[in-house]
């Protein structure tokens, strides 16, 4: 269940008067999703998704919405935000920032094979290439500074062995210099539930609300860790190869990226171990987030420390 703020039809009908998309014919809460209230909205002119942002500050939202508009303009299956009659993407419903985007077709595939991973690799490279001409800048909200601060917050709640793992990883990550790595706008949360499949084709890439500017390789690592891991956290070599080669074919990896890759896979695993551990041990009052299993990402981190695949060579 993730309609945290109900929206009555009468409220939405009134709100839609400031848009040029016709009259409301259907409003349905969406049960998936973990951080915002989402609704399918059908009008006499089309199908949309309404999001009420539950935890993200109003100041951060234009970066995400304009990034989605930019990527959609570049031909990628990203939901274009809908501007209202004041030419704004962002409005307010029930005192929450709210936005409408196009509804895209498809459904998530939670047990992907190598063919899915090939398409996801190519799609991620496409997002990075198109993102290079995006003019706005906003740091990755879950970047190195956040990781260090969050590690300090969750440390006391972890068993001793995990504290030692965390200390070692934070110390290791502090030695990594990412200055030579290509950077740009990254999705930063391209998990299986954020890609909609229309048959074998990607019909939608959604949920840009963790996006920001960071190294492109961090995004590659985040995506690979979710799409290509086995139950014990180790990597499926077939899916990993398919994903990495498809990405490399569109945006070839540099030597600096090849050198930084094992550390980046670990940084990406650490990021989700920390966010899940924080949601688990330190739930914020009044903030509604569905907690996912932190141990899954602790295990992925341990596996990446033990072994990482090489990036494809030129
Ligand atoms: N533009 C869209 N087109 C079609 N379905 C969407 C779209 N945006 C969201 N959804 C649906 O809503 C669900 C929750 O969206 P998501 O952005 O992941 O929520 P949250 O931000 O709360 O994690 C998705 O799993 C998907 O089914
Ligand atoms: N993908 C993250 C949590 C963010 O959830 P989303 O539904 O907004 O993608 C995780 O798995 O920890």
UniProtKB/TrEMBL annotation:
Pfam families membership: APH
Assigned EC number = 2.7.1.39
CDD domains (UniProt xref): HomoserineK_II
The molecular function terms of the Gene Ontology recorded here are: ATP binding; homoserine kinase activity
Keyword field: Amino-acid biosynthesis, ATP-binding, Kinase, Nucleotide-binding, Threonine biosynthesis, Transferase
Q: Which InterPro entries does the record cross-reference, listed alphabetically?
A: Aminoglycoside_PTrfase, Homoserine_kinase_II, Kinase-like_dom_sf, Pseudomonas-type_ThrB
Q: Which SUPFAM superfamilies match?
A: Protein kinase-like (PK-like)
Q: Which residues form the Aminoglycoside phosphotransferase domain?
A: 27-253
Question: Which EC class, in a word?
Answer: transferase
Give the reaction(s) catalysed: L-homoserine + ATP = O-phospho-L-homoserine + ADP + H(+)
Name the Gene3D superfamilies for this protein. Answer: 3.90.1200.10, Phosphorylase Kinase, domain 1
Record pathway: Amino-acid biosynthesis; L-threonine biosynthesis; L-threonine from L-aspartate: step 4/5
Q: Which GO terms describe its biological process?
A: threonine biosynthetic process
The cross-references to HAMAP family, in alphabetical order and at most eight, read: Homoser_kinase_2
Q: Which family does it belong to?
A: Belongs to the pseudomonas-type ThrB family.
- The protein's name: Homoserine kinase
Q: Which organism is it from?
A: Parazoarcus communis
Give the gene name.
Answer: thrB
């Amino acid at each position: 269940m993730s309609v945290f703020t109900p929206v009555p039809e009468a409220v939405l009908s009134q709100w839609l008067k400031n848009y040029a998309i016709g009259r409301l014919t259907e409003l349905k809460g969406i049960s998936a999703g973990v951080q915002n209230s989402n609704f399918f909205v059908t009008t006499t002119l089309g199908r949309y998704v309404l999001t009420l942002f539950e935890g993200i500050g109003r100041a951060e939202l234009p970066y995400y919405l304009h990034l989605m508009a930019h990527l959609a303009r570049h031909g990628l299956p990203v939901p274009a935000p809908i501007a209202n009659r004041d030419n704004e993407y962002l409005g307010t419903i029930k005192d929450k920032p709210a936005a409408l985007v196009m509804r895209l077709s498809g459904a998530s595939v939670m047990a992907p094979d190598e063919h899915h991973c090939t398409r996801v690799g190519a799609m991620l490279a496409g997002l990075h290439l198109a993102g290079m001409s995006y003019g706005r800048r906003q740091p990755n909200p879950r970047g190195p500074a956040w990781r260090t601060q969050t590690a300090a917050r969750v440390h006391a709640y972890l068993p001793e062995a995990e504290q030692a793992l965390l200390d070692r990883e934070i110390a290791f990550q502090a030695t990594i210099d990412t200055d030579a790595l290509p950077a740009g706008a990254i999705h930063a949360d391209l998990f299986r539930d954020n890609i909609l499949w229309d048959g074998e084709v990607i019909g939608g890439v959604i949920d840009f609300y963790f996006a920001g500017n960071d190294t492109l390789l961090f995004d590659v690592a985040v995506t690979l860790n979710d799409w290509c891991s086995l139950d014990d956290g180790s990597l499926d070599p077939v899916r990993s190869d398919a994903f990495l080669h498809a990405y490399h074919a569109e945006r070839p990896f540099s030597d600096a990226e090849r050198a930084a890759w094992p550390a980046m896979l670990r940084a990406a695993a650490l990021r989700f171990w920390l966010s899940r551990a924080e949601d688990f041990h330190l739930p914020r009052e009044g903030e509604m987030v569905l907690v996912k299993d932190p141990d899954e990402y602790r295990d992925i981190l341990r596996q990446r420390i033990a072994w990482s695949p090489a990036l494809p060579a030129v």
